[in-house]
Amino acid sequence: DAGVIQSPRHEVTEMGQEVTLRCKPISGHDYLFWYRQTMMRGLELLIYFNNNVPIDDSGMPEDRFSAKMPNASFSTLKIQPSEPRDSAVYFCASRRRQGNTEAFFGQGTRLTVV
Amino acid sequence: DQQVKQNSPSLSVQEGRISILNCDYTNSMFDYFLWYKKYPAEGPTFLISISSIKDKNEDGRFTVFLNKSAKHLSLHIVPSQPGDSAVYFCAASALGNQFYFGTGTSLTVIP
User: Fold this and answer.
1) Contacts of residue A86, Cβ cutoff 8 Å, sequence gap at least 6
2) Do A99 and B96 touch (CB under 8 A)?
């Protein structure tokens, strides 16, 4: 298996523009997580899905952030409009099932908003 | 509010010695704990885990200890190697739901 695939790896955009981050989870995994890595908060959970349904989006910082999972093999995280403080590394992770199993992470998208 | 805390942002250890990374948590409902390792420009990779029914789990050079009464978790690496230099994240979950991560500890193993 290719693992969790994220695109793009790097994104530089201007403040106010829309940004879309993409994730393909590992086939057969029921759970998908979006995390943001910052120095202050470490790996911060933004939202997670179970069987394509959003379960907890309480970590989404503002209404400017939205996430979708239209099918089991694809998810997007959208920021509209983007702001400089959104600059961070965004990770997607997937997990096979509930219970004592680990999550597998993608390589991340480094977002820079100028 | 951080439910999982790693109070040491960095740690330096001589090659061959023991590295001890610490983690504290506040939620008594957590029943599964993990350590992840992260190299620059890569995603975190799973290292080792422990269930709350155990107090120790060992995998080669890596051992995780759990002290439930103190709500404390530690990772021991013996012997430490230069390739172990990375950021280590502690994580916890309750009832098989989402993982809560700490802020990470950057380990440097000096040759």
Assistant:
1) A19, A64, A79, A111, A113
2) yes
User: Which secondary-structure segment (H or E) carries B37?
Assistant: strand B32-38
B105 CB near a chain A CB, below 8 Å? no
CB contact under 8 A, B34 and A102: yes
Residue type, B50: I
Per DSSP, which regions of A8-99 are E strands? Answer: 10-13, 19-24, 31-38, 42-50, 53-56, 65-71, 74-79, 88-95
Confidence class for position A4, pLDDT limits 50, 70, 90: very high
Number of Cβ atoms within 10 Å of the Cβ of B30: 22
Residue A44 and residue A38 in contact, taking contact as beta carbons nearer than 8 Å:
yes
Structure tokens, B97: 């739901």
Smallest CA-to-CA distance from A113 within A15, A25, A10 is with A15
Q: Which residues of B touch A4 (CB under 8 A)?
A: 43
Report CA A101 to chain centroid distance, whole Å.
19
pLDDT in tens, A84-96: 999 999 999 999 8
